[in-house]
Amino acid sequence: MTKITIAKGDGIGPEIMDATLEIIIAAGAQLEIDEIEVGEKVYLAGNTSGIAAEAWGTIRKNKIFLKAPITTPQGGGYKSLNVTTRKFLGLYSNVRPCMSLHPFVSTKHPVMDLVIIRENEEDLYAGIEHQQTDEVVQCLKLISRPGCEKIVRYAFEYAKQQNRKKVTCFTKDNIMKQTDGLFHQVFDEIAKEYPEIENEHWIIDIGAAKMADTPEAFDVIVMPNLYGDVLSDVAAQITGSVGLAGSANIGEECSMFEAIHGSAPRRAGQNLANPSGLLQGAIMMLNHIGQSDVAEKVQNAWLKTLEDGTHTYDIFKEGTSMQKVGTKEFAHAVIANIGQKPSLLKPVNYANNAALNLPKYSRKTAKTKTLEGVDIFVHWAGTDPNELAELIKKIETKDIQLSMITNRGIKVWPDGFKETFCTDHWRCRFKPTTGNSIDKSKIIVLLNNALLENIDTIKTENLYSFDGKAGYSLGQGQ
Ligand code: NAD
Description:
- By secondary structure, the chain is of the alpha/beta class.
- It folds into three domains: 1-92 and 239-352, Isopropylmalate Dehydrogenase; 113-238, Isopropylmalate Dehydrogenase (3-Layer(aba) Sandwich), CATH 3.40.718; 369-470, 2-Layer Sandwich (Alpha-Beta Plaits), CATH 3.30.70.
- The protein contains 13 helices and 20 strands.
- The protein has helices at residues 13-26, 40-44, 53-62, 81-88, 145-161, 179-191, 204-213, 225-239, 276-288, 292-307, 327-336, 385-393, 441-452; strands at residues 2-7, 31-36, 64-67, 93-99, 113-119, 129-131, 137-139, 166-171, 198-203, 220-223, 246-250, 255-259, 310-311, 323-324, 369-379, 400-407, 410-413, 425-432, 456-466, 469-470.
- Strand 19 (456-466) and strand 20 (469-470) form a beta hairpin.
- The chain is elongated.
């Protein structure tokens, strides 16, 4: 018997949760269930996180959480509970298998069978955003070495366990050389430990195009958070319906299982929704908690049901489907098929599907960190970068001088182009006049001089090198 927490969520959530639980319990799942309330009702009762403090206690105690989709109210002030849960509980790996069920579910990609492993805690999802000037807001993209190592290792271990042949990495490191560059670098490092598994890297734009066009070229794809969010919806949708895919959010201590789709409020309360996405999440949960025999039974019965042509509205197609059913009837059809296997689709065998046990991240020896300069960001409403340079030069010290000004990353001084459009947000880079390091106290002097000159400084970024390698980007055009 395993104790789990469930939340029925919003919109179609309660219907698909009831259907899912009915199926897995009929198949013999040994579960003791604690139900908590999350989502819209909790948000609208004034709790901006969408979950009460006691509910966190239940989730943390039981460690296994099966969650139906929830509605995040529109507008500012409400934080996404999904993102909060993933990050609070350290659920670093989001596993999203996307497989076509040809010829039973209509798809342009009959032999597609891929798994997206999405980094789940960092990237732009840190959600650290600031308005800095009248014209410019920023969102911090944070990528960490532990984050990259954990997710990339998870992808290779998953491929090894599932007997998959290739792991592909998608990044945009031709542009984001530090953040996506680190992800790619760690991928190359860890890939070497798995010589039996093929590895490759694609720039995300052409990789995504290739995945949407020829998904059969891919097996396991690992990527940073935002790309994984977007592309796993694409991958699920092109198998036939976003309503078919489930997702596992795996952490070192806790795990959460869900459908990849949302609460589809327009379909709620009408016995219409396809419960398959949440059911796929529940099957991953059963594997994770060591009830793989039940998981296997449910998956084979589900495949058989789809093969029988018993379809909910989202995948129903005249000519392919046999009967259109509602959520409840679909669940009952799956239950009736428990113990049976599909005949044309490949039956699953989950003999080797237990939770992965990965080594904990161990911190590396610190590198030699040298402060090589500073970027001071300035809010200035003028338009001529030469004029700004004259102003900024007034705050230079005898050891530190202005070396470059950029606007939205492109160098505008010295030798800028008059065609370059400039906003009111300027990055002024200061470097030492001699040598290649500065003393941190000098940054305070620069900022103080700026105050005296009435220059509106909005933030600073220190320019470090680590073991002699620059840890900051050049200006575009520099
Ligand atoms: P959605 O995934 O809820 O629905 C998009 C469309 O997909 C629906 O109109 C419906 O036609 C179809 N669909 C989705 N699931 C289906 C199912 N099981 N069966 C049949 N058809 C299905 O996306 P949305 O409309 O953008 O979002 C609605 C709400 O869900 C929003 O409040 C959003 O914040 C939330 N959301 C929650 C989660 C989550 O809890 N994990 C994930 C995504 C979106």
